[in-house]
Amino acid sequence: GKSTLCAGLCWRGWRLLTDELCLIRRNDIRIVPIPRPVGLKDASIDIIRSFAAEAWISREWPDTTKGTLAHMRPPTDAVARADEHAVPAWVVFVKYLAGSPARLEPVPRSRAFLRLAGNSVNYSLLGIDGFETVARVVDATSSHDFTYGDLNDAVDALNALSQQSEIARA
Question: pTM of the full predicted structure?
Answer without folding.
Answer: 0.89
